């Protein structure tokens, strides 16, 4: 089993910054891609950013140039640096990870609330 624990959420004013962290623990033998999603109230889950085990990244168009995903493989941790935050980005942010231990399974964190005030 793998556990993902997010942290770093909170309340920030529009234009501000936050850095989210997601640490994997447990039987994390081989962590492949790691992702950040978000879900705003009343809206669908949205993929924000993804990073492969090799460090390749991809972003939703709405966050390009403002958000940066990174990872520390030694710590089994993925980060999301969010700059120039907007009120409409208020959401619960979730991380997930594809973990290979004989087979590959996808695990999710419990989410962390980000609130951007105008």
Distance between the termini: 40 Å
Biggest β-sheet: count, sense, barrel? Answer: 7 strands, mixed
Average pLDDT confidence is 95
Q: How many helices? A: 0
- Content of β-strand: over 45%
Percent of residues in helical segments?
A: under 10%
Task: Give the uncertain stretches in residue-range form.
Answer: none
Query: What string gives the helices and strands in order?
Result: EEEEEEEEEEE
**Silhouette:** globular
Q: Roughly how many Å is the radius of gyration?
A: 14 Å
The class by helix and strand makeup works out as: mainly beta
Counting DSSP E segments of at least 2 residues, the number of strands comes to 11
What does this molecule look like?
Helices cover 0% and strands 61% of the residues. The protein has 118 residues and is mostly beta strands. The N and C termini lie far apart (40 Å).
Descriptive terms for the model:
single chain; 118 residues; mainly beta; seven-stranded mixed beta sheet; globular
Break the fold down into its secondary structure elements and pairings.
Elements: E1 2-7, E2 10-13, E3 18-26, E4 31-39, E5 46-51, E6 57-59, E7 67-72, E8 77-82, E9 91-101, E10 103-108, E11 112-117
Parallel strand pairs: 2-11
Antiparallel strand pairs: 1-3, 3-8, 4-5, 4-9, 5-6, 7-8, 9-10, 9-11
What's the quick description here?
This protein has 118 residues and is an all-beta fold.
């Amino acid at each position: 089993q793998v556990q993902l624990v997010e942290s770093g959420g909170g309340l920030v004013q529009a234009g501000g910054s936050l850095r989210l962290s997601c640490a994997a623990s447990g039987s994390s033998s081989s962590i492949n891609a790691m992702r950040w999603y978000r879900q705003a109230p009343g809206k669908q889950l949205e993929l924000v950013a993804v990073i492969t085990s090799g460090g390749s990244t991809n972003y939703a168009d709405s966050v390009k140039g403002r958000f940066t995903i990174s990872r520390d493989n030694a710590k089994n941790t993925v980060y999301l640096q969010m700059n120039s935050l907007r009120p409409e980005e208020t959401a619960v942010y979730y991380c997930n990870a594809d973990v290979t231990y004989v087979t590959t399974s996808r695990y999710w964190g419990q989410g962390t609330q980000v609130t951007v005030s105008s």
